Amino acid sequence: MAGDTVLFAVREHPGDDTVGAEQLRRIRKELEAGGFAVRWAGTGADARTVLRTEAGLAAVLVDWGLGSGGAPGGADVLRQAGRRFQNLPVFLIAADESLEELPLWVSETVVGYVWPTEDTAAFIAGRISSAARTYREAVLPPFFKALRRFDDTHEYSWHTPAHSGGVAFLKSPVGRAFHDYFGERLFRSDLSISVEALGSLFEHTGPIGDAERNAARVFGADLTYFVLHGDSTCDRLVGHFSVTRDEIALVDRNCHKSVLHGLVVSGARPVYLIPTRNGYGLSGPLPPDEIQAGTVAARIAENPLTRGALSTEAQYAVFTNSTYDGLCYDAVQTARGLAASTPRVHFDEAWFAYARFHPLYAGRYGMSVGPDTFPGPDRPTVFATQSTHKLLAALSQSAMVHIRPTPRAPVEHERFNEAFMMHGTTSPLYPMIASLDVATAMMDGPQGHWLIDEAVAEAVRFRQSVVRIGRRIEAAGDRPAWFFGIWQPETVTDPASGERLPFDEAPAELLRTDPSCWELEPDAEWHGFPGLSRGYCMLDPLKVTVTCPGIDASGRMADWGIPARVLTSYLATRQVVVEKTDSYTTLVLFSMGITKGKWGTLLDALMDFKARYDEDAPLDRVLPELVAAYPGRYTGLSLRELCQEMHDQLREVSLVQLLDTAFQELPEPVVPPQLCYQRLIRGGTERVRLSEAAGRVAAAMVTVTPPGIPVLMPGEGIGTPDGPLLRYLTALETFDRRFPGFRSETHGVTLDPETGDYLIECLCRGEEVPRAALGDARELAVPAPAAAPTTAATAAPAERP
């Protein structure tokens, strides 16, 4: 395997001609002749740096006496090797020590001992290289190992895909450019399901089946399925399996639109559970009272769609964990709360696949709900769907479904696999499967904890640095105050001493290891979410929300402000692309790929933005492309003037509060979502302007993105002109007109190309189903297509945003 490296953590012997030093140099030469690279670290600090940064190590040779003055610095190196790698072969040089004098834990850490002068250099190097090659072969997980072996056979391809290992691309100039860009190995590994040696994704056999079973072990599931179309497909798959037509599904209104697409596919009747929101406009968790049996029963009873349901009992519940802004639940407490109302609970963990691998998140993820944490017959079957590619190391669209079934709601593989095949493909991309297999192997054992712990440590450093900059500027007193913040507790408690510490003064080790530092204390001002109980919800330190001035967590607006859309536009000019932008907050994600250089660049960009704001820089210097695109609107403005104009607009129309109200005061359900889809396909819908939408029934969801949460579902009434939904959408429409270049991304809304008016899809007047008909939706027939709409807005489809 190319790139194998052996680390010699051995004291330097410059000019040393002793027999032992010469023998170590001979061992090094033998290993290099055998194809290994050798890294020589003469101090404990250097050795630990190599262990931290070099993932290609295949073996380590450690001098027990490494360190200044002959102190046993080798002990620290041995400990770090054990924390960083699983089963890495470590040999201890013990030339001057008796084995009986070494601590007992050493023998559990090393695979062997080396007395350099007692065997030949060739023999010792042979022992090391043999252990190294065995380790490197064992590192490979099942499917990736089989794929490499198949690639090594160099067989001719007589099956799909037609590019035949990339050969077809070489017959065309553009194809050759494509081949050269990605390299031959990608195309040689793009194979057909006809390759029996690699197993079947649909039959879950061979190396693919082995890889899924290995993932189940690593992620703590009973069953795991690889999905190649992202967490969106996982959500649709689980929903399609768990609930059928005219059965009730309990749905967190904070769910991603893919969950709601699953309701359309299955024909389920949704009953929405309402999450909390704070003054920033951030979506919070479902409060504990919202998931209790009495509240759920009341929600079901008051929902018009449940009158024709097959049963008044919900068959399925789904909620987001962690939320898009990093709020994660006490999983067992949440499962217990919902278990009284449904036998199946789905944790949508698209952004949370790493939770099992760090003690900070203990008990906060779906697969932590099992017979040991929730014993007895009431435990529901638990599903967890994860976008493995989002925050673990896998290729885009790579995802997994994890399941812990119970007798209360059995999951028979053969039946679940029918749903799986409906949403899968018979032409899977094998590199994607391999990436899921490798992502699993990367998290197996101590290395998984190491990788997530490093990301948490960097997130903590960034969070504290932002606060410290503010304190330094305040102490200097030579410039305007720092105005960026991080959404996090202002103080934390050291459980050892009981002392309350400012966040930036708390030991990084405490913040990195103690979950209590991140828990949302009931009614704490910093988070702004009502109705939470102690320990119920925790902020994920890896999801960092930068706050801009203008509003606080309680929703109080200031006289001046800096809307986050202006900030993120500036960051884009610095090649800093954020995950999500709200009115006064922007979200950045810390993952295994984060480095000090990466977050340092972000910090520098924030400081530069502040400097340009303080000096009131002309906008054409700060956002030149914006001014060039809309010269009539922005020429002559300064950065500070743009920020204030936008802040005044947001404050005047109360956009943040309107969005909050739209999410809290849900529209009235009129017809099931699936019926609206039928009308949409068969011409029973039309696009109308917001000014004409009052009293109509939505035929398609309207989704604010990112993060992709619907404010309006198909089958829901749009309400009155002064109702929360139309007031919010009208305010958004007005904002988009006034600030071109900052337009909102709202799925389900199209634009009139001539006027810029918002258009939304509604049921045609004659297609709306009377509420009385909801007594039994199974009796509703799909009517013939309606006559073609005659309004200008519906004469031709508007261009999609």
UniProtKB/TrEMBL annotation:
Pfam families: OKR_DC_1, OKR_DC_1_C, OKR_DC_1_N. Gene3D superfamilies: 3.40.50.2300, Aspartate Aminotransferase, domain 1, Orn/Lys/Arg decarboxylase, C-terminal domain, Type I PLP-dependent aspartate aminotransferase-like (Major domain). Residues 385-399 form the Orn/Lys/Arg decarboxylases family 1 pyridoxal-P attachment site domain. The keyword Lyase applies. Keywords: Decarboxylase, Lyase, Pyridoxal phosphate. PROSITE patterns: OKR_DC_1. Belongs to the Orn/Lys/Arg decarboxylase class-I family. This is Orn/Lys/Arg decarboxylase N-terminal domain-containing protein. The lineage of its organism: Bacteria, Bacillati, Actinomycetota, Actinomycetes, Kitasatosporales.
